[in-house]
Request: fold
Amino acid sequence: MRRRHLAVLAACVSGVLVTFTLTGFGNANDGHSSAGDGLPKTWTVYAGNPEHNAEFPLPEDGSEAIRKGVSWQFREAMALPLDAGPMDEDVLGYQAASVKTTQMIGTAVGVTAANGRIYAESDWNHVYALDAVTGREIWSAETINEAMGNPVVAGGLVYVGLGDTGFSFSNVLNYASGARVTRGMGFGAVSAFDEKTGREVWRFSTKGQNMPSVVYLHGRIYFGNGDGHMYAVDATTGTQVWATDVGGFNSMSSANYWHDPATGRDLVVAGFSLPHALVAVDAADGHEVWRATVPNVYNTGMGDNSPTVDSRTGLVFQNTVVDFDKATNTSDLGLFAVDAHTGAVRWETKLGRGPSPLAYKAAISMVHDGVVYVGNPATGHTTALNEQTGAVLWETDLGTYSWKGATYQIQNRGGPTLYRGVLYQAAGAYLFAMDPKTGHILAKINGGGRFGIVNPVIVGGTMYLGNSWGWVQAFPLSTLYPGWATHQPGDSR
Amino acid sequence: MRRRHLAVLAACVSGVLVTFTLTGFGNANDGHSSAGDGLPKTWTVYAGNPEHNAEFPLPEDGSEAIRKGVSWQFREAMALPLDAGPMDEDVLGYQAASVKTTQMIGTAVGVTAANGRIYAESDWNHVYALDAVTGREIWSAETINEAMGNPVVAGGLVYVGLGDTGFSFSNVLNYASGARVTRGMGFGAVSAFDEKTGREVWRFSTKGQNMPSVVYLHGRIYFGNGDGHMYAVDATTGTQVWATDVGGFNSMSSANYWHDPATGRDLVVAGFSLPHALVAVDAADGHEVWRATVPNVYNTGMGDNSPTVDSRTGLVFQNTVVDFDKATNTSDLGLFAVDAHTGAVRWETKLGRGPSPLAYKAAISMVHDGVVYVGNPATGHTTALNEQTGAVLWETDLGTYSWKGATYQIQNRGGPTLYRGVLYQAAGAYLFAMDPKTGHILAKINGGGRFGIVNPVIVGGTMYLGNSWGWVQAFPLSTLYPGWATHQPGDSR
Reply:
């Protein structure tokens, strides 16, 4: 980490505006301020770090309230009633509403914790800054299109990718004729908002949609998007630094990065569809360094999932829907590992078949201490795998719920967070605490509404989440799992 | 008209809630209240009547201010600056923004005048009720998706169709494989709002989008939509009366109706794409009565335009993009007439080739006294045709405008309104007054922003319009054309 800090200080000396972020790159756990609330000062990538383990133990002088655990609920624009029951078609009328509410109303992929605030993006064209202790709205801003990612916070600005899931009729024709397809009907843009006021400071417009989260690195914003490009934009001015046409289109694959300690080079990685590929480009100039794929990718699976990076081992993990069977309308979920140095696929493990998930599909994986954790919407299971071999260590069925006399598999699109020896995950209406060594379910509570693709953010004794029905919530860990502070991994059976 | 009034009174006697609409069916000109503002009491179809001639001479006791001409501007959510210049990409950054702003921000197809109010739908998920004299907001309501039509007002409720233009990736695949295609990614619904308060009273959800305007007839709402159906819904309760699968998908073809004086039957008519057809169903039970088409329809042309009906002659007029030439990327605009009794195409006239218009394409025609009037976005011309033969009576080039040293054809997507011997039309940033006999341009003023597919609504001495940049405006006719009150058709050359 030392080299990075020096790099930022050098930038300050040469006159570049870096007023906030003398710490906080790379592993988010070292990004705390030296005084005040104790939340990270910056949030540079989806889930707060390349590993997607969104856990932030408070420093000694951090907020005592957050350490004990705060509890609040914030209702976004157009939120559905939390207690309406698990079947949102009862509220919205149409049988496929379940698919639509994950993309049309709420917070699609969880929240951001930075500088004493929780930031959330809403599919209902909003971004919110909330007080982390009280849940009170500090500001909200209307956005030019749907906002479906984690806000990225750095340098006094909040970066929000904007777009929508639609294809124009021109692109329907393009696909049929074998021509190139762009995703996004409405405005595609990345907007930067003033962290203090919510005022839009700049907006960078593109042809395709930019719903996934962006990456902030050293004064630039990076992202892959719906017109098949990787972009680098100056974080202060919003002007383009480079754009690389990598082909296909990105749907919801948030960019990630790998810092190569041997060469000092940063790679930016994101998934694309048609052609299906995980693509890595050089952050300096955008040239393509490698691309990787697996056989039999189905639908938009590759461009709908966000890669996870183990900064220490240089392995990149991506999952995608594979092996669609038309007769049974089932698919498998393939999780694969790519060597970030070479782009070689090291292994692929099939996580289990089930009904083909519609639309935005799979949980985003998390890697910690040599183990990859991921939810599987096709089976409802959560799986832990050896990150070097892909061998399954354990697999846990998150179970079912009942509604009006019928029983349903809990929809498992969540990515876990590992904090102080306990694995936390959201799925359906529920929050789970699991033993990370065995997968044993330690506790389960009903949070209301429905959680979509979300990695819980844990700060001190508090868990922060957004849900698909338009709520941002804070839960004390003690109400979820009373033994949270003392649990020893493996002690659960 | 007598028969209809009796039917409504009968409904009252049998206990059905009909408190407002004892007058006002059919030709909107007879729908004035007997006291008060003088605006129509109901607005049952796009542009206020089947002929799409949205003109309302005030009764003797109508509003003196509206008779003299009122002037105001109402700014909708997310409106763009009116004075930003004609090229909205200067505001929004991306070269194709012009196409997107007609579908993403403002009022796509004009406004509704009823009961002292101007009602406007916004692509930015809103419906507004404004005071017709002052432009002051009386209420606004957020809608579950984009609202791109004319609000229909009857029986104390305001009916708004909702949806979006996108295709899901599933539908991209469907088209490529020859399977059925549905339009609309987000929620598709028709919502009914309380005319007094804006409270949503009911919502009828569908699989596809419902952006076009609906028709109100005798206690029911009728519309064609993005899942290829014609629907009849009870206007008071929102429950389905019938649904007919007519195939294909409707994009922006607002329903119209023809009352057959010989049989007493009402037909409901709307356009669909894939297959391309203008479809008429019986309002009573939804059975298909006829369908009509012309050769070489291009893209979604047929389902993107709204049919016009001459109630007296029983002719239905529809235009569509035809004869696409790939080499030059040009198309023609075909206007055709259908005999509403038989569904036979009586004539088709090609209105002139030009650059193929993107997305939502053509002006909605208006018929008055045996003449059909229509704008042509491919050529920028407005054309008048004999409604019985399709012979062109005159054709007027609306001219060009300059912006930053370059010259552009004025985008002509407007439908005219004929009032007291003058033809009024909006195109680009401009409002035109023309002689209806010769097409001679009598006057032209710059209204700011950009007018899209809009038929001006004229009440007394005031013109009401919505524009694509998110403004609802009232213009005194005297500021547009000082001779408006005394002009004699044909006196212009």
Q: What stands out?
A: The CA atoms of residues 400 and 410 of chain A lie 5 Å apart. The first strand of chain A starts at residue 55 and ends at 56.
